[in-house]
Amino acid sequence: MLKRLKLLSLIVCMLASLLAVVPLTARAAGTIVSYPLPSIYTTTSQYTVTADSTNIPVIDTSAVFVNYNYCNFSFSGTTTITITASETINTYNISPKALGITATKSGNTLTFTLSSPTYLIVKINNLKDLVIAADALETNVPASSGTGIYNVKTGYGADSTGAAMATTAIQNAINAANAAGGGIVYVPAGVYKCGNLVLKSNVSVYLEGGSVIRGSGNPSDYTTHFHKNSLGKDGTWFIYTETNANNIKIYGRGTIDGNGHYMRNTNNYLNNILVPLQCSNFTVDGITIRDSGGWATIVTRSNNVTFQNTKHFNNNELDYENDAIDIQESQNVLIKHTVAVSEDDTYSFKTWDVETTDIAANWPGSPESQSNVVVDDALAWSRCGAFKVGDGVKQLQDGIVVKNSYVYRCWRALAVGHLYGTPAAQNIIFDNIDVEGFWPRSGVHSRWFDLSAKTGPIKNVVYNNINLRALGEVSIMKGWSDTSTVSGVTLNNVRVGGVAATTLAELKITDTNSYAVAPKFNTLKFEAEGYNLSSGVISYEASTDGGLDVGGGSNGDYIAFKNVDFGSTAKTSIDLKVASANSGGRIEFHLDSPTGTMLGYWTAESTGGWQTWSVKNIPLNAGTAVGTHTIYVTFVKSDSTTVANLTWFQFK
C-alpha cells in the first residue's frame, strides 16, 4: 500500500511539474502542424514566421515569382502569428482588409491572432508580400501502408530526392490502384521529378505535407498536347485524367510544382499543371499548385468538380497567359476557400470550340455549355482579371456565381468579357466581394467593373453587396451591335466610402453606349444562390427559370444575406419565386439570426413540381424592415423532407 501511495505521489508531482512549465495560453491554443521544407526550396531572408512557438518555413520564391513569398501550416483552436522582418517595421497591411485583423508591431515584429482557417497577404514596408495560408487540421489522413494503400516510395521505388525520374513508379501505383477497383496512392514527403501522369477512376492521391511532385523542365519528358498560337509554343498537360474517368481525388498538404517558369523561358515549352479532362466527380483538397508555364489548372468538359482549401501560386510579373484557375465547358463546379496569385487571370470561366481554338484541338468529346459554377471565399491577386467570365463564350455560359470573396490587386476586378463566340453569357452573380486596389499591366486602365459585349450578348448580371475601397480608372459597360448587347444589370448596395451608389458616375462606370441598357440600382432583389452564410443541407442546382436555384432546405436549415439595406422607409411585402412538389412547412424571413425578429413567412404548398416555378407574395410585419441587417431565410418543417426550392426573393 505504501509503495502505491509513493507511486501515486510521484505521478502527481510529475504532472504538477509539467503543468508548471507549460503556459496556460499555450495549452488553450490548440494544435499547430508545420510541414518540412522540401529540399528544392529555400527559406527567405526577409521574414520568419511562427505560429505560437512553432516555426513555419517561409518559402523564398525569388527565382520564379519575383513579388511574393509564402508559407503554409495547419492548426486548430486559436494561434498567435508572429512575423519577424529583416528590418524595423514602419508600415504594414494585412489583407483581406474585410476580415478586420488587428496586429501589434514592435521593432521588427508583427503579431496577430487567428482563430479559423484563413488565407492572408501581408505587406510590410517595401519587402515582398507574404502570403500566409493557415489551413484547418487534416481530418482524413490515410495510413502510409496497408490494405488499399499504394505507397509510391516504399511500394514502387519512387526516388524521393528529385535526382531521378519518378514518373514510372507513380504511374504504376496509380495503375495498380485503378486495377484493384480503387485505392489511395500515398506520396510521402520528398521531391518526385516527373513527366506526364494520368489519373484514373476510383483513385485518390494523397500528398503528404512536405511532398512535391515536380515537373522535370525537360520537354522530352512530355507528350505534346497543344500549341498556343498567341505565344508560339507547344505545351503539355502535366497531370491529367483519363477520358471519362470518375471518382478521383487529390488531397493532403503537399505540392504539385510544374517548374513551368523555367521550362517556358529556357526550353520554350508550356505546361498546364492539372487538367481534369472530360471526367466526373473530381475533388482537390488542401494542396498547393504552383509554377505553371501556361494556364495552370484547367477544369475542362467535366462535371461535379470541387476545389477546396487549395493554394494556387504563379509568377505575377512576367509570364503572360499563366491563369491560375480556368473553368472551361464544365458543369456543377465548386471552388471554395482558395487563394490564387498569377500574372494573368486568377479565376476565369470560358467556353470554346474545336475549329478555331488552338488549345482545344485534342480535348476529347464535343464542345459543351457551362453552368452551375460557384466560387465561394476566394482571395485573388492578379495583373489581369481577378474574377472574369470570358473572354471565350463560344458556348452558352449560364449560372456563374462569385461570392464572399476578396480582390487584393488586379487590372479588372469583376468582369464579363464577350470577345469570342456568339452565345450568351447570362445569369451571373458577384455577391459580397471586397475590392482593395489595383496593379494593372503597363499601359492599361484599371477598373473594378467591366461588361464588354463585343461578339454576343451579356444578360442578367447582378452585383450585390460590393465594397469598393478603390474604383480604379474608368469602368466599361458597352455592347457593340444589336446582337451584342448588355442588359439586365443590377447594382445592389455597391458601396464607395461605405455609401451605396445610386448613379453610374459615382462608380466611374462612364464608358457606356446605347447597346448597354442602364442598370437598376438597389432593387432589394436577391438571387438565392448568392447567399453569404448557410447551415444544413443546402445545394445549388440548375434552374429551368435560368441560372441556379437553392434546393434541399429542410427543417432548421437556413441561408443568409449580409448588409441588406432597407433604408428608412419600411418595406411591406416580399415576393419570392419558389417550386415544390409537396406541401407543408414554411420559408421564414428573420432579422440578424435564424430565430431573430420574424419579418414574415410563406406556408409551403405544391407548385406542381420541383422545377415548376411560381411567384408568391407575403406581407411583412409592420415597421420591421428598416435599416441595415443580415437576412436569414429559414426552412421550417415537421419532418426531414425538403420544404421548397427557391430561386429569388425581393422586398417591396
Automatic annotation (TrEMBL):
InterPro entries: CBM6, Cellulose-bd_IV, Galactose-bd-like_sf, Glyco_hydro_28, Pectin_lyas_fold, Pectin_lyase_fold/virulence. PROSITE patterns: CBM6. The keyword Transcription regulation does not apply. It holds the Pfam family Glyco_hydro_28. Pectinolytic enzyme involved in the degradation of xylogalacturonan (xga), a galacturonan backbone heavily substituted with xylose, and which is one important component of the hairy regions of pectin. Activity requires a galacturonic acid backbone substituted with xylose. Residues 1-28 form the signal peptide. Residues 524-652 form the CBM6 domain. Belongs to the glycosyl hydrolase 28 family. Keywords: Carbohydrate metabolism, Glycoprotein, Glycosidase, Hydrolase, Polysaccharide degradation, Repeat, Signal. It comes from Paenibacillus odorifer. This is CBM6 domain-containing protein. It comes from the Bacteria.
